[in-house]
């Protein structure tokens, strides 16, 4: 692992937890971060099965990696090497499509897969609790701000809210039963499968979902059934939703205007962010994230790469190329300074925004 990435991890620890320190540090980073540099390609033993999900631990020291055969490995970000294998995978298992650390603990990791299995790992002891959502293919998973609740969503279009202490279902936001002619309204559940779910980073109860029905739903987990607001347009096919302050970022699997910025309060489009698509290939994004208040990163199958963009100036800050392999997932850590990108054939790359 490069010296600069180690320094970024150490810096993120020193910043502490105060909002004041975080805001000041981000302002300084925004001025200093001008380019995206690829620092490391991390080969892993399960790469043959492709990587479907990534998630950094809250302190940025670990990166959880989910593979197509159900395997989960942990990368030590300080050494750049493999820390542990939580599950080696099996030919009967399907892809780990979503991973999420508890926001207050780097010891607790929740994984969910296309076979409907949810696994809760104690990273240090490697003890695991597993159970399944019968008949569902889970595509998305996230914790709320304080970690008391996590939510899942996928093929069956229902959104399940779990108590993270007991792993019991607290509530199910049920999707409309289209076959039995349930009324469809703008604020009812999704009409097609869900691929992304993201809790608001500053609000305990708010989260967003998106999928194949060309809409983003904004939910309040205290509400029994209907979404609070709806954004029409984004065609989400992967972890292509993020939120920062009052801005929502979406990455759609469409040829043009795939990367978009929306106002959280009004649910209106603010901007189409230029994304450098290849001629005759289109953009076709699967994943998108905020790095900081000015910079976003996104990738998919159109360019076979992830690109960082300063959306205020439309300047391309750099690219992580997977050499003609689709980007299926990405994540950021250390206040946006460190980026992980992976996809078909594994191809885990670590980059630095500096």
Automatic annotation (TrEMBL):
Origin superkingdom: Eukaryota
UniProt xrefs under Pfam families: ANAPC4_WD40, WD40
Domain (Anaphase-promoting complex subunit 4-like WD40) ranges: 47-84
InterPro entries: Apc4-like_WD40_dom, WD40/YVTN_repeat-like_dom_sf, WD40_repeat_dom_sf, WD40_rpt
WD repeats, residue ranges: 131-172, 187-229
Keyword annotations from UniProtKB, A to Z: Repeat, WD repeat
Signal peptide bounds: none
PANTHER family noted in UniProt: ANAPHASE-PROMOTING COMPLEX SUBUNIT 4-LIKE WD40 DOMAIN-CONTAINING PROTEIN, CARBOHYDRATE BINDING DOMAIN CONTAINING PROTEIN
Protein name: Pre-mRNA-splicing factor PRP46-like isoform X1
Species this protein is from: Geotrypetes seraphini (Gaboon caecilian)
Classification lineage: Eukaryota, Metazoa, Chordata, Craniata, Vertebrata
Gene: LOC117358073
